[in-house]
């Protein structure tokens, strides 16, 4: 940014004069006395030969003489070329100094009590961009001393001094910061050295705005100042670091980021979701914090976080990294730019990432809370047999293979008793990319929910458990059980078309393509198919499955095979103690019935089962399902991804 009337404090030369001629003139005497005090570095004498206004501004500190030296004021012969009486007690004296006849303008005023003339200010004629500009020494000294006071305040880290050196939004933000946050920010701005060597600053001025560049041991400090009510105050400061490349692009912006972090952490630890909504990005709040149990993921409070943190900024994004009980926590900060000039930009927390296992595992609060919420929702839907919610909380694969195939009339008899017992509890959660494993306990049964990311949303894809005699995958188990129940319902309803669709080629050729109604047998096949699952053997490579339902006295074993990439029923072996083999093929029984009844049953002669499947059954009339006792086998976390 180029500023009008820019000048270098180094190049602004105040010429001390060795006065020649007319030494008796009061004007020359005043200038000579001022020059001698400067040469002797006598601050007391300088104050005596200057007005109160000049002393308070340019000589207000013990370091004033050092700052006058920074201006590099040379000496030389001087000649008065003009004296103008502004009033009885006010004179303007133009002096030419040195070989180049540098012009200085002294403003002298008379002390009323003593009648002595003293220096009120000195103006130096400077050229800048072809313009001759007169610069006031008191203004330059005021700015130079203010810069020194600003640097000292930030190096010492005194909160009151830091606030006194700033103004406007910058001061308001710093004032709200936790003391530890402010102290750390001050250290970043001032550098590692508590007392860096004072070097010559360079300033550019434009009316009441100044931008000062000051070389420091660790880099360069750029201070933006504003003149308000006659006083220079910092409105921002930046640091270009040469040592560690830890630049501070804007201390004001960093302070606002730190304030956003502090407010978020305080609201989080107070479980104040109203405040959290204010300090969080909307997507983060609505998709995580709004329904999350904050107690399951403790975060450090602002005091602890401020003690040891790192702030990394890049564009409109920043990361605040701190520790919580020895584990790293990262708060992602998002900048929301304001459309209105008078409204400052807003900084909100966009996400929180927790690092486990020495940083090898990363968990976002969105994933953590979403995984817990979707798991609890899914489990509750299982208990209530709520197909709509189960579909909503499942991946497309689980919905397609299971929930979409459940007959509306069989919802109440959904075979999920083993995984819908009372006393559900989440024990631990493992995150691995797009797959999340939620380890839980259902009553006495350990199980693992497998969640997958689908279009940015975590959904249940499967449940793994270790029960003897059945697959670990609940999805694979339910896919076949639902098909068996649907098969039973289709037999009950004489739906030959569906039976043909879900039967093997051999079953269709022997039975279903030859009848328009289900042949009547002495065995209640549909009712037996609704018996409780005893065991299931599944060989996905060969596309074969054997499902045992009920017991050896009353039940059935369903033989299933994969045909055209779809599992179909190949036969139903009826359990019976009335035959030597204890198993009777339903194909054989149906064929015998067909032969005894000309191969086709009439509608009024159809077998009416006594089990609960019925198209007339209303949801409110369904008898509650009794939950069997299930003794869990040893539980092991699956080693392979589902």
TrEMBL record:
Taxonomic superkingdom: Bacteria
Name of this chain's protein: Uncharacterized protein
Organism encoding this protein: Gimesia panareensis
């Amino acid at each position: 940014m180029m500023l009008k009337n820019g000048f270098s404090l180094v190049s602004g030369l105040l010429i001390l004069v060795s006065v020649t001629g007319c030494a008796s003139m009061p004007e020359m005497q005043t200038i000579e006395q001022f020059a001698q005090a400067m040469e002797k570095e006598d601050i007391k004498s300088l104050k005596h030969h200057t007005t109160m206004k000049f002393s308070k501004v340019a000589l207000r500190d013990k370091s004033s003489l050092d700052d006058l030296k920074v201006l590099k004021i040379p000496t030389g012969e001087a000649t008065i070329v003009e004296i103008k009486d502004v009033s009885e007690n006010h004179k303007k004296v133009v002096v030419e100094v040195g070989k180049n006849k540098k012009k200085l303008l002294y403003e002298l005023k008379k002390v009323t009590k003593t009648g002595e003339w003293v220096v009120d200010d000195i103006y130096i004629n400077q050229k800048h961009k072809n313009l001759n500009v007169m610069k006031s020494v008191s203004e330059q000294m005021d700015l130079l001393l203010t810069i020194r006071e600003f640097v000292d305040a930030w190096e010492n880290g005194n909160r009151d001094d830091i606030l006194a050196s700033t103004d406007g939004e910058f001061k308001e933000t710093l004032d709200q910061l936790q003391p530890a946050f402010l102290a750390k920010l001050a250290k970043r701005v001032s550098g590692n050295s508590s007392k860096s060597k004072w070097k010559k600053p360079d300033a550019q001025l434009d009316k009441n705005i100044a931008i000062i560049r000051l070389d420091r041991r660790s880099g360069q400090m750029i201070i933006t100042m504003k003149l308000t009510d006659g006083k220079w105050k910092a409105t921002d400061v930046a640091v270009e670091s040469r040592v560690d490349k830890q630049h501070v692009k804007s201390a004001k912006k960093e302070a606002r980021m730190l304030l956003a972090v502090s407010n978020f952490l305080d609201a989080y630890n107070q479980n104040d979701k109203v405040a959290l909504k204010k300090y969080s990005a909307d997507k983060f709040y609505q998709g995580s914090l709004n329904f999350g149990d904050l107690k399951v993921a403790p975060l450090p409070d602002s005091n602890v976080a401020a003690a040891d943190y790192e702030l990394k900024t890049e564009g409109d994004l920043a990361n605040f990294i701190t520790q919580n009980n020895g584990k790293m926590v990262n708060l992602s900060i998002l900048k929301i730019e304001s459309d209105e000039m008078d409204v400052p930009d807003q900084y909100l927390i966009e996400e929180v990432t927790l690092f486990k296992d020495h940083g090898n595992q990363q968990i976002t609060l969105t994933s953590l809370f979403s995984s817990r919420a979707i798991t609890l929702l899914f489990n509750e839907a299982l208990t209530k047999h709520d197909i709509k919610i189960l579909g909503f909380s499942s991946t497309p694969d689980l919905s397609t293979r299971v929930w979409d195939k459940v007959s509306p009339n069989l919802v109440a008899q959904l075979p999920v008793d083993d995984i819908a017992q009372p006393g559900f509890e989440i024990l631990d959660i493992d995150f691995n990319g797009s797959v999340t494993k939620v380890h839980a306990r259902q009553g006495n049964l350990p199980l693992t929910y497998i969640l997958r990311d689908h279009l940015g949303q975590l959904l249940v894809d499967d449940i793994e458990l270790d029960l003897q005699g059945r697959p670990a995958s609940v999805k694979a188990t339910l896919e076949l059980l639902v098909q068996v129940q649907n098969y039973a319902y289709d037999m009950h309803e004489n739906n030959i078309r569906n039976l043909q669709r879900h039967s093997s080629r051999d079953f269709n050729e022997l039975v279903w393509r030859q009848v328009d109604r289900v042949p009547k047998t002495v065995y209640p096949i549909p009712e037996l198919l609704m018996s409780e699952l005893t065991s299931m053997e599944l060989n996905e490579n060969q596309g074969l499955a054997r499902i045992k339902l009920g017991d050896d006295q009353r039940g059935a074993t369903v033989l299933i095979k994969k045909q055209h990439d779809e599992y179909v029923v190949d036969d139903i072996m009826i359990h019976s103690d009335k035959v030597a083999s204890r198993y009777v093929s339903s194909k054989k029984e149906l064929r015998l019935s067909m032969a005894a009844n000309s191969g086709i049953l009439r509608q009024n002669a159809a077998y009416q089962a006594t089990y609960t499947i019925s198209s007339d059954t209303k949801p409110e009339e369904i008898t509650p399902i009794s939950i069997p006792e299930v003794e869990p086998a040893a539980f092991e976390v699956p080693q392979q991804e589902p």
